[in-house]
């Protein structure tokens, strides 16, 4: 599947740094770009720079007084708990506004490229800060770059936008900002809010006539169950909604090795999800696809491989999962982290799954989660919730 694709990158994007010991370590993005470069992935995609989002652009989704509070924290490095900065999740640091605005600007650049037709697909792996709310930081996120891209596209006159979030955590910030806007369909597949932050994302959160869709998966869900749930929910809704543009968030913290969550996916299962979303972008949105990174806290074994697969998928030149990681990259990993890098681009899994055509099993917790979502949302879209 070929396309004109663009990756947005600036070395300054790694300045979004909450300090030593924080799970959202910028080295994960640095190692991803290094791996993609060493494997030749970046030779097959146009790589362009970006500029920070302006205050007026940020104000499309964030309150003005919040932006001013972030700028004050940025200048002083001191906390402002009313803005959500200075907590263990969101430590205050000097330069936080500039670093956050650059990430937002990178996702805006991706949106602009797709809207203007200079690229069919565009990706900002440093983005995906989906927890930030209109008036406060939350969950490691200061400015909500996917929401900003959506708001900007709506302002340009885009009629329908679908947002699919595959991060292990509920995409609460994006959902909240567009909860009552029928032009935006948000679909989030995540670990159940009963066991994971942010405690939202139940099937009954349906927005404006079904514009919010939440699949709350049980802890322990692996590749086959996750892909079964995805196939049962996202494709039918996207085919019915027919978005003008597809926006996706690719937190890879659904992996079994991630230290902050409890799903059990492999890099191979995540790669399969990226390929499925690529096909759906072409089938339902005319190929117009904007992708971001997101969560992911296994910094060496998971994030670089997962997001290198994502960039390769967007480029139209997906990597053979058996590909060896380059020796130069492994040496760089050792130098930067002291850890031993993975040897290949696969976890050795074959992510197969059964669809719902054979019916569902009410004793299976994954099938129960799927059916709870279908029953809550499908009738609002004129779809039959039963398989």
TrEMBL record:
InterPro entries, A to Z: AcuC, His_deacetylse_dom
Ranges for domain Histone deacetylase: 22-313
Name recorded for this polypeptide: Acetoin utilization protein AcuC
